[in-house]
What does this fold into?
Amino acid sequence: MNYQDIVYYSKLITKKYGSNYYYATSLFPEKIREAVYVYYAWTRIPDEYVDGGLTKFEANKKLAHWKHEWLQASTGQKQGSSIHNHMHRLFLQYKVPLQYAEDFLFAMQQDISQVRYTSYNELEKYTHGSAVVVGFTMLCFFGLYKKNLLPGARALGQAMQLINFLRDIREDVDDLGRIYIPQEDMDRYSVLEEDIIKHVYSDNFKRLMKFEIDRCRALYKKAWPAIEKLPWRIKFPIRIATRNYEGVLKEIEKADYDIWNTRHGLSKIKKLVVLIRSLFV
It folds into this structure.
């Protein structure tokens, strides 16, 4: 497939699997938008191997093949799966360190082998590959890979990933056997692994959720100054995406931290309010 075919294919994947991401991405300038679509698809495909209900053996096999094809493409050897070829070209064009792709794929491998995290420091090592390097790569696509923006991009990536974890606690434990909330946090509020597995909704669980939401907001506080330094055509979509994710936290709070009965998200009306607000501040 040529590049435009890959962009179209990637756009469909983005729209199918990342509606909020697609919504915000569509507001970027055309060339950046195309690069982001391809990058999203390139990351989403192995993510589906890991989270799509395959056995560990099947997931390992598919992920190993994906990693092999990427390794070949990233050393200049064209692959039949041409998304790798175009992804490598984009990495060269936008001067994205190849290490970021390796870090992401390492995190995908980690999702197959690791289902518990003892501490937040340990979880941060995972979120580096699963989210932070994604933010760093986006800065490269924007032409804004600068030292003063990296801490903000790191904090934003961590916050968004943590919000995903909080929103998806039930799906992660029921469907994938994973608990991303660090054991040290669960111990602090006397929440047992068994409580998560059995969906126990208690005062202790609510206190744990409040603690994790406060952590997300502290990360957002670090991220916003960096967001506001971006040019308007970049800042506007990121404002929208950031506030849509922040809205998930508010919905969880409104439900008194009950994430067991509803997968929380924003209605179309609330997303429209976010868009209008983001035009101004």
Remarks:
- Residues 151 and 223 are 7 Å apart (CA to CA).
- The chain has a mean pLDDT of 95.
